[in-house]
Amino acid sequence: MESPLNRPWYFDEVVHDDDTAHEVTHTLAFGAIGLAEALAILEADMPVVVEDWEGRARWVFDEEMRGILASGHQLVAVLQAAGASVTATQESASREAQLRAELRDAYWAEQAERAERAGRAAVGQG
Amino acid sequence: MASARPQRLVHLAETTDAIADALVTRAGWIEDDWQAYSLRNATEWRFDLSDVPDAVRAWARTLRSIGEFTGAVGAAFLEADSDDGDDVHDLSQRRLYELLSADLRGIIDESRASRHDQVDWGEPDDPPAWLEALQVGAMVIGHVGEGFDALDTAYVIGTGSATRWSPETPAVLGRFATPTAFRNFSRLFGAGDAALSGTTAALTQQQADAASLNYTDGEIARRSTTRGVIEGGGALVTGLGGWLAASAACGPGAPVCAVGVIVVLGTSGNKVVDWVADRFIDSPDPAEHDHEVVEDRVDAIAPGTRLRDIPDWMIDDVVGPLENAGEDAGAAAFESRHPYLDPGTLADNLVLADDHALPDRWVLQNVPLQDWFQVSTDLTLAETP
Fold first, then answer.
1. In chain B, N or C terminus with fewer CB closer than 10 Å?
2. What is the ipTM of this complex?
3. Among B189, B193, B222, residue whose Cα is nearest residue B205
4. B307 CB near a chain A CB, below 8 Å?
């Protein structure tokens, strides 16, 4: 007996939204650009700032700043990778939704055909 | 003994503060978009980036902290001697310690950093190899998912002591339109030409202002126009004055005298023009940037920015490759989830259609005719005794 509970897997809806995915991808990409701009500013300033700076405070600064710049570059890469991952997930979901829609259409067409055949058979028997 | 140019340390603190403010705003935008995205995309159909805003905030916090530390050290030097902050100030380590707060003294005491940890930060126009390697590293990591060339965003601008890395050159000037190149051009095609002199001066002013991150676009345009008009007009007046003076003092038939007068008057005239221009146009200190201009640079593209307001290179070099890479990865993920959808695979093993509850009608529509012919031949052969 046909019921919503025993319908095939492609009746499960793919809940996804192109617009919000697109928006967050762009925000992440522009975030990566903004952070890269920030790193460029800092790296350009660094030789000017440390000129003639000597002493223990300078050593602490150098040790910390080098790590901060390195992690900043990694964060740029993370933002880009996150943006690409959102697009990848969206593309995957979009294809999945399209496939399921096609399968559902074929399923309903098949059900209608079966019902019609059964009706004709019933009329024939009658 | 400790030494520094304290005003520059204070300027760095201001710059890191501006960058941190901008990044906190950026983190907020990512968080807002993440919330909207997570509400409209089911858990299994979205990429979890909930940690990303906090990662950006954490980095901004760390940057602000090192800036505060640096600024406090600069302020301590200035407290001991407030004379010209851009000059080198010397101070004993003990005195510097006394002028720092207990917290900052603790940071220095706890650090194991030594003289060997001092980093070569290179020259403004010649970054050290390790820093370039960092950028290449980011590039390589970036290529894993997309294709962003980090080196594209920073390149050298200016000349001599004014040389800086700049994240952006006005596109209209071309990527390699440095003031030096333009100056060489003007020398080649007419030394002393007033128009070229004014244009070169305006261009130099514009690039220096843009690189200094102290002025808005409108201010940059006004300052470069002022510089161009003063220098161009000055060159015209100096040239005319030299010619008139040479005519009056030397008379015809005394070329050496005429050249001498023109050169002497031209040189001193240019100095006067430069002096006049400098009176009208102030210059920022080394490493000094305007807070709002730095923030705008980092937050240049806000959510809702119209496409036509976004520079082409951002779309072509960053967003486009990133989306293309994402689409390719998404297509591959879909195909690996449904390997049985391949028509050849289905035709080879029709049981797969039943296993995945595919409607017969869909299978008939999607497996090409020649594959069905192969299926029926195989079935016929299998059924033949």
1. C
2. 0.92
3. B222
4. no
